Amino acid sequence: MKGKFCLLNRKTFIVTNVIIGVVSVNVFILTRLLETSLAFSLGLYTGLLAGWLLYFFRGLKEIKRLTYNTDERTQLIVQKAGSLAFWVVLSLMALFVIISYSPKVTISFKSREWGVLVMNSMLALYGVFFMILNRKL
Amino acid sequence: MDNTIRELRREMNWTQEELAQKAHVSRQTIISLEQGRYDPSIHLAFRLSRIFGRTIEEIFHYREENP
After folding, report:
1. pLDDT digit string (tens) for A105-135?
2. Do B27 and A74 touch (CB under 8 A)?
3. Which candidate, A85, A135, A119, places its Cα nearest to that of B38?
4. Which of A73, A74, A76, A136 is best to mutate for the B interface (most B CBs within 10 A)?
5. How many CB atoms lie within 10 A of CB B62?
6. CA distance B9 to B17
7. What single DSSP character describes residue B12?
């Protein structure tokens, strides 16, 4: 792990915002091309917009305060939380697959339901582990 | 691993925020270090030793868990 961390400067802030903007436009085009349902598309746009606004205002604050919010400890927490979320979800999914193959269990999942389940549980677990580790470390 | 960061910081009359700025880390990291909850990387240990003008051994005291 490298010990050098840079303050968020104006250039990085602008470039990141441009990247998020390009991603947002692409997501918008993709949902149009794929003709996804209105509820799904609106959910996606809301999520993207919320993330973008969060980054934008947090970034503005960080540029003004000039503090090192992202340092090696944060990096460690991110790594550990990600790793923990991955292994917990993987273990649960493995268990779930075994259960779903049983003739006694009559639940069935569509591929997109699997996707949503994995994505949401991973995101939720990541958030939970991040908060726990942030208190412990 | 024990450390004397809090004592050294007080000797220098620095706040946690000031030390964090000098060490290029967040104030939360300084708090965690002082409470012994977080062991720093070798980079940060060297940076702190230079900031305080002490050797790493003077700041950090390694304790073997199974002697």
Report:
1. 887 878 888 888 898 999 999 999 999 999 9
2. no
3. A135
4. A73
5. 9
6. 11
7. T
